[in-house]
Write a structure and sequence with these properties.
alpha/beta, Rossmann fold, 2 domains, 4-stranded antiparallel sheet, 11 helices
């Protein structure tokens, strides 16, 4: 079995009294997608900066972090040569067209013009941007800019792709297109690190997710395995406030967990028929019965209240 692309062991990172990353460990195998989930302030961004070598220098155990065998604190350039990074914001040059944005970036990696031209053709085709080759950045839609930013990160054929909130603010069609492209990259051997607030995105493309809260690892594993092991299968949401207050005053049936901490009453159970009995006197549109998802698990682990950093 190939060595993991990334190994993190008992990693700590503090800013004064604040523990941004607190004793976090995990590893990422090759040709997989590893996702980080967590509320704002959970430590995801700090962790990503450490992995890429851009966090402020501090003394850490030598074995704390290895990316392709390199220590980010000592071998930042080696890791950057093997990695492509897609920041949360599209930091493209608005004064240049699509092709020139990629050509300028290719020079950072010492690519010869013929090599760069071939790679640009390949990536523009892959991300369905060939017809926009000569278009100015300001003429592109948000989805096109995002695809171009990902294409730029792949220009030097990296082995690791790091994505920070890759589809925030994009319409569903563009999101699904980007998911399809990421799946193809993974199939071709690319290793992907992803931070996202979209639970369905993590479920769709991540082989493993790590949920962080207050700097610590709350849970890690394949998305469906986590759902099967750590939360009830079905969810009943009482939509109508008056009905919710009436049901809240009744005893909770055995095997049912209630969560009254949001604006609507929510019950969880592994038996759908038990939840249907709770809602038997409610009319259409007053409740919603569905299967649980990653968002339910996320809220169970991290809570529904906003923390002081959100």
């Amino acid at each position: 079995m190939a060595d993991p692309v990334l190994i993190v062991e008992n990693l700590h990172k503090s800013y004064g009294p604040i523990k941004a990353v607190d004793n976090v460990s995990f590893s990422v195998p090759q040709a997989s997608c590893f996702g980080f989930l967590g509320p704002n302030g959970a430590g995801k961004s700090t962790l990503m900066r450490i992995l890429y070598g851009t966090a402020e220098r501090e003394r850490r155990p030598e074995t704390a972090v290895r990316v392709f065998g390199f220590d980010p604190a000592q071998n930042e350039l080696d890791i950057k040569f093997l990695s492509g990074v897609v920041p949360q914001d599209n930091n493209l040059d608005e004064e240049l067209n699509v092709e020139r944005n990629l050509l300028v970036y290719s020079k950072f990696y010492g690519m010869k013009r013929r090599e760069a031209d071939g790679r640009i053709d390949e990536l523009l085709s892959f991300f369905e941007l060939s017809e926009k080759r000569k278009a100015r950045i300001r003429e592109l839609s948000g989805g096109m800019k995002r695809r171009l930013t990902i294409a730029r990160a792949l220009l030097h054929a990296p082995r690791l792709l790091i994505l920070d909130e890759p589809t925030t603010g994009l319409d569903p069609q563009v999101r699904h297109l980007i998911w399809d492209k990421l799946r193809q990259l993974k199939k071709d051997g690319m290793t992907i690190l992803l931070t996202t607030h979209y639970m369905d995105e993590a479920y769709q493309i991540c082989d493993t997710i790590l949920i962080m809260d207050k700097g610590r690892k709350a849970m890690e594993g394949p998305p469906q395995d986590l759902l099967d092991s750590h939360i009830e299968r079905y969810v009943l949401e009482i939509v109508k406030p008056d009905a919710g207050r009436e049901i809240a005053s009744m005893p909770v049936p055995e095997g049912v967990r209630s969560d009254p901490s949001r604006d609507r009453l929510v019950f969880y159970s592994n038996e759908a028929h038990v939840l249907r009995r709770i809602a038997k006197n409610l009319g259409h549109g007053e409740y919603h019965l569905r299967e649980s998802n990653l968002e339910d698990l996320f809220l169970k682990l991290t809570g529904r209240a906003l923390n002081e950093l959100q």
